[in-house]
Q: What sequence folds into this?
């Protein structure tokens, strides 16, 4: 995901430097105040370790491909968000200078896309929320996979926005997002699995190294699926509400194809059953065309995103409950057969 | 399995060797860093169809390569890294931007083709400029410059420490990787069952090592402040030469951006 210099305009590159610079100042001040100078050598060695392990291929079973460790979330779980953020800056700077991975002008954007999301959203929000009442392996798995996927998705989305804002590519927004997000979903999952494996190993051998580890609460803590579901629901609402504001006003892939064939994004409405059903749909649709009726406002678009997320969550819960019920029924039948 | 690590070690030693060759240069690293920043920003500021004007910026790269004896092959190796990404993003330009710019015989040149080529040229120029900076000053020179430019000491210290321990940890990861491949011959990567112990073992050893490093730093009088070789640079760098170097290069670079110098020179010939 490293962006090269030519993918950014000087203005966007400068703006991203300012954003990353603010996060850097915050981290430096926080570490200074907390007098955690002790962490400096740990940060250096951890940075070098992440740099080195990025060169290793991890075989992903069943795919024939391999994954790599990016390390932002892993370091945030071991060093805390601020220290890991500064360490990731060091890693990114050296990657840019030594190996031409990224560029000097694009460093601000790369720090934001890879270090900020991984360390602050991943480490300060997801890790801390999930580990609030103690750490265990299941929580580590949930946090690592969720954290890596979400932070990589945010990073990939930022790459799209930064490149388009710079006016570098002619790729339409929808196509660019459609290319970037699914690729990074797979990468995020791969990284999440590797991070899980490493953090679980650390938890088994030296749990005191993990951020938020409390010896006394460790045994008491249980996996709270309720908390997990609440977090997922809240994140979905935030992502849907905020990201839908950026929903493209251009036709999507299918509409684009129809436009090329017919000259309009809508197909001609034939009379009969189609017309009747369309009338019914329009009359019952709460949010036609993803917005409030007769409204083009951003609030309407956001509300549509939130409503969509809620519907998906309700649907998933229903499917999950159905599967659970089916399993229980089948289990009972098997038990009866044995008896 | 260790190709990546070997390549990283090779690039690392290359940069170190280049910087060592030029360690007695009278030009202060800050001047070099500033000139590189101006060069990169100026290069990026060219419009997406201004390919011919962009070629003027090659003057800096070519002159630096010859005058400072920069190894061209090492420089071009780094260009390879970004070409794939630029290709992925740039390939869309000829597809979506089909406006015809000119025709040369039977070949039609579109705006999209030009903007894609401009992207590549910008990529090559910026990577070359970065390599020249690193080869001339080394990472310690850049860290020293960052401190002079008031980048927080904590951050610069972390960069320096990562750099110092990079070869050690690359070698350690390589050794562990060799040990793994001997036990699991014929495997392309690390098996899923070994993911945790593989990285985890190195991680735990590294954490212990960092504690040893910290203890030894304290024993040698570390009080949270690094010198970053500032005294060394101050002693050998000439202020007037550094200033002249920076001003003259910045004037050349900005002139190449503002005036169509290449066209004027071309006009003299044709």
A:
């Amino acid at each position: 995901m490293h962006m090269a210099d030519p993918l950014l305009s000087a203005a966007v590159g400068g703006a991203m430097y300012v954003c990353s610079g603010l996060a850097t100042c915050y981290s430096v001040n926080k570490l200074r105040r907390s007098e955690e100078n002790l962490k400096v050598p740990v940060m250096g060695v951890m940075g070098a370790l992440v740099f080195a392990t990025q060169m290793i291929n991890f075989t992903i079973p069943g795919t024939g491909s391999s994954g790599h460790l990016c390390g932002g979330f892993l370091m945030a779980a071991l060093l805390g968000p601020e220290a890991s953020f500064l360490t990731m800056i060091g890693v990114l700077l050296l990657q840019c200078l030594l190996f031409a991975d990224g560029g000097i002008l694009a460093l601000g954007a790369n720090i934001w896309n890879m270090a900020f999301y991984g360390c602050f959203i991943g480490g300060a929000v997801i890790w801390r929320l999930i580990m609030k009442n103690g750490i265990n392996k299941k929580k580590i798995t949930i946090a690592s996979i969720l954290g890596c996927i979400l932070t990589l998705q945010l990073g990939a989305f930022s790459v799209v926005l930064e490149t388009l804002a710079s006016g570098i590519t002619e790729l339409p927004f929808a196509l660019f997002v459609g290319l970037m997000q699914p690729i990074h979903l797979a990468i995020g999952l791969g990284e999440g699995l590797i991070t899980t494996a490493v953090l679980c190993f650390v938890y088994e051998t030296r749990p005191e190294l993990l951020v938020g580890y409390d010896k006394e609460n460790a045994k008491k803590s249980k996996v709270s699926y309720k908390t997990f579901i609440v977090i997922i629901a809240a994140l979905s609402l935030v992502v849907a509400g905020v990201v839908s504001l950026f929903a493209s006003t251009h036709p999507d892939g299918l509409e684009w194809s129809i436009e090329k064939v017919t000259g309009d994004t809508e197909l001609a409405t034939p009379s009969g059953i189609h017309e009747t059903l369309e009338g019914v749909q329009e009359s019952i649709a709460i949010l036609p065309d993803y917005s409030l009726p007769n409204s083009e406002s951003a609030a309407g678009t956001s509300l549509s995103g939130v409503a969509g997320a809620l519907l998906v969550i309700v649907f998933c819960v229903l499917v999950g409950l159905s599967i659970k019920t089916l399993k229980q029924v089948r289990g009972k039948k098997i038990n009866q057969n044995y008896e | 399995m260790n190709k990546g690590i070997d390549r990283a070690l090779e690039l690392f030693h290359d940069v170190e060797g280049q910087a060592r060759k030029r360690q007695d240069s009278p030009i202060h690293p800050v001047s070099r860093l500033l000139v590189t920043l101006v060069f990169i920003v100026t290069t990026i500021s060219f419009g997406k169809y201004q390919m011919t004007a962009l070629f003027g910026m090659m003057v800096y790269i070519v002159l630096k390569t010859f005058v400072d004896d920069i190894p061209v092959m090492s420089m071009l190796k780094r260009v390879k890294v970004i070409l794939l990404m630029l290709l992925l993003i740039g390939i869309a330009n000829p597809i979506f931007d089909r406006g015809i710019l000119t025709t040369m015989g039977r070949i039609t040149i579109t705006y999209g083709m030009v903007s894609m080529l401009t992207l590549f040229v910008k990529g090559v120029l910026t990577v070359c400029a970065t390599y020249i900076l690193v080869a001339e000053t080394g990472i310690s020179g850049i860290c020293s410059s960052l401190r002079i430019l008031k980048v927080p000491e904590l951050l610069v210290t972390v960069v320096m420490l990562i750099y110092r321990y990079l070869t050690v940890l690359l070698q350690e990861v390589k050794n562990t990787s060799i040990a793994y491949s001997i036990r699991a011959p014929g495997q392309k990567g690390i098996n899923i069952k070994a993911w945790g112990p593989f990285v985890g073992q190195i991680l735990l050893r590294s954490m212990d090592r960092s504690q040893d490093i910290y203890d030894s730093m304290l024993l040698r009088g570390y009080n949270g402040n690094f010198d970053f070789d500032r005294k060394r640079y101050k002693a050998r760098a000439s202020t007037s030469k550094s200033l002249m170097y920076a001003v003259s290069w910045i004037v050349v670079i900005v002139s190449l951006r503002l005036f169509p110098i290449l066209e004027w020179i071309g006009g003299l010939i044709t």
Q: What stands out?
A: The first strand of chain B starts at residue 100 and ends at 104. Chain B touches chain A through 87 residues (CB under 8 Å). Chain B has a mean pLDDT of 86. Residues 3-151+230-262 of chain B form one domain.
